[in-house]
Amino acid sequence: MSFLLEVRRLRLLAEFATRGTVAATAEALHLTGPAVSQQLAALEKESGVPLLEKRGRTLHLTSAGQLLVDHARVLLDNLAAAESDLAALRRGERGTVRIAAFPSAARTLIPLLWPDPYAAGHQAPTLHLVEHEPEAAEAALLRHRVDIAVTHSYSLLPRPLPPGCESRPLFDEPVFLVLHPADAAAHRLAPGEQADLARFADACWLLPSPDTACHDMTQRVCGAAGFVPRTVVSAGDFAVLAALAARRAGVALIPRLALPAPTPELRFHPLSTPVRRSVHALYRTGTGRHPDTRHVLDRLESAARTSTASEHAGLPQPPRPPASRPGG
């Protein structure tokens, strides 16, 4: 039996350990359920020990199966690194890197990747962008439909790192209360003052769409302030929320990256109890050494520094969390 086929079976076993079911493994690898079962049975026969056992109606790894998965992941990571090293010898070739990014990053951060003056004698990889919320971006990454997923998590709503992935932090940013100056005055909020959200329990609230982490963030922050927000608008675009806040339709919580340009009709206030959004670039384990992927990750870091240094440089700064507080 060829070594390549054995590696494919090990990859399949590792995928089963990540997905948990034959059906999910088959979907991820674009195979049929019977094909996955046959390959797992063949691998078990080759190993000479039981790798899987039935508990009720579902399959689970045995201790031997888990041991083989641990070794398989090391092997697969090393193979991915070897492929990257070989690709490094062919740097003059033009590759393609597929990126999934949430909307405000797709609007403000990803465009900074163009144009791309690569090092002399080398061609920059072609970039493909698809806009996805973090959950969908992670799913696309795990299904090998993209190579990099730019995602975010909030300090009070952390997202676990998906199995089989690595993360490169890009930046942290504060969340602001956005409202019309007249609404700020009505709630006794002076220009530049940190906003105590408890004052806004009776306000009309403009919320992101219910299927987003940003919606959950607003609900959680208001709940921590002691009230349930009275929602009058639900929209998938922060620009819509800001435009309505400028018309005194209500107030909104918006991360710095998604803020519009300052206008006389809008005020941005840091929160007295800070909430931060962390932005990350995720990629599958072992692929970060691929020259094209590594190049785009480095460019993303550079773009993040440029974006955070230039975007809204005159905004009021939120209070720094205590040194013992974990970053969000």
UniProtKB/TrEMBL annotation:
<comment type="similarity">
    <text>Belongs to the LysR transcriptional regulatory family.</text>
</comment>
<feature type="domain" description="HTH lysR-type">
    <location>
        <begin position="5"/>
        <end position="62"/>
    </location>
</feature>
<feature type="compositionally biased region" description="Pro residues">
    <location>
        <begin position="316"/>
        <end position="328"/>
    </location>
</feature>
<dbReference type="Pfam" id="PF00126">
    <property type="entry name" value="HTH_1"/>
</dbReference>
<feature type="region of interest" description="Disordered">
    <location>
        <begin position="303"/>
        <end position="328"/>
    </location>
</feature>
<dbReference type="InterPro" id="IPR036390">
    <property type="entry name" value="WH_DNA-bd_sf"/>
</dbReference>
<keyword id="KW-0804">Transcription</keyword>
<keyword id="KW-0805">Transcription regulation</keyword>
<dbReference type="InterPro" id="IPR036388">
    <property type="entry name" value="WH-like_DNA-bd_sf"/>
</dbReference>
<protein>
    <submittedName>
        <fullName>LysR family transcriptional regulator</fullName>
    </submittedName>
</protein>
<dbReference type="Pfam" id="PF03466">
    <property type="entry name" value="LysR_substrate"/>
</dbReference>
<dbReference type="InterPro" id="IPR000847">
    <property type="entry name" value="LysR_HTH_N"/>
</dbReference>
<keyword id="KW-0238">DNA-binding</keyword>
<dbReference type="InterPro" id="IPR005119">
    <property type="entry name" value="LysR_subst-bd"/>
</dbReference>
